[in-house]
Amino acid sequence: MSAGNGDKFTEVFGRASELNRKFQYNAAVPQFLRARDLAAAKADQCRALDGAGLAQMELGQEGSAYKNLQEAELLCPKNNPSRLTALSNLCDSAEESFQYKEDAAALLRELVVTAMKEEPENVRRVFSVLMQSIPAHSAAASFLLSGLEDDDPVKGRDDIELAKFYVGVAREQAVQIQKVVEEAGSARSHLIPVARDMGVEPELCQARLSILDGNMNEARKVMQASSTIIEEATLDVDVRFMAGMLSDKVGLQTEAVKALNAVTEEWEEYPDAWFYLASLYVSMQDFQAAEEAMLKFQRCDLGAYHKGGNRDFDDLMQKILDGKRKPRNDLSSDEEDERIRTEIPSF
Predict the structure, then answer these.
(1) DSSP string, 111-148
(2) Fewer CB atoms inside 10 A, N or C side of the chain?
(3) Tell me: the pLDDT tens digits for 158-173?
């Protein structure tokens, strides 16, 4: 590459990065791709392709994102955890997805060790790497746990000990990030809530492990200890939904209701949350709340619930009908059943 081309790459890549920082992804993508065309060194080509691919993910352009990120991975394999994490979410194959998750976690473990050995230790650098590493290890653990829970593990990855390894690393790093915050000086107050939130997913994974091991008492203790943090933390709705389900499984119904209601407050059209809430209210004998949750469930995009009918839906509806069978003074039992069925449309 001539000096002129090198300067041009730096200029265009810098412009793309600035647009990206301003969340102007539509404008950033063509600049990143232009920078890729200007780059001669593999490392620069990868930086530009990574920038384009990750920006395209933000735009929902998953096909183009996968193409650019995969090209970057072929050029510079296993050197960018953000790329590896993105590819794990974009690829179709479960085996391939898990391999990317493993690669991301392994790279981040190395980066954590390297960052902590820097002299003087760069607190912000360590914090930043741990922020990537904790969710990466939690994601690898969760992927394995989901397969073990459904009795459908990824081929060759059905060893619960491997899941325990990832959970163990995630929990250990969640403790590390708290210690890093203590050394953050004036930035400490801004980092405390972030570090707190980082500890939630590892604890949920630990609770799932305990349930798989048949140790419900341990799972309950983990969820009880985490309940206040879960309530206060800023979490992805899927993580909070998992917290609600786990709280219910270990008998913490009040905490489960809080978590699931928080999910529906953030995302009103989350059918699984409404359906689970309805089921939970039935188990609590609160049939009025169950009926209201089912009404909200019916207003969601039900998609998969319609395919081939839904036995769970029918069973839950029957439980609500049975629970509300006591008629109003002016209605017979049959008329009361008809009123409920009319208010909650069936499939």
Answers:
(1) HHHHHHHSSS--HHHHHHHHHHHHHHHHHHHHHHHHHH
(2) C
(3) 788 999 999 999 999 9
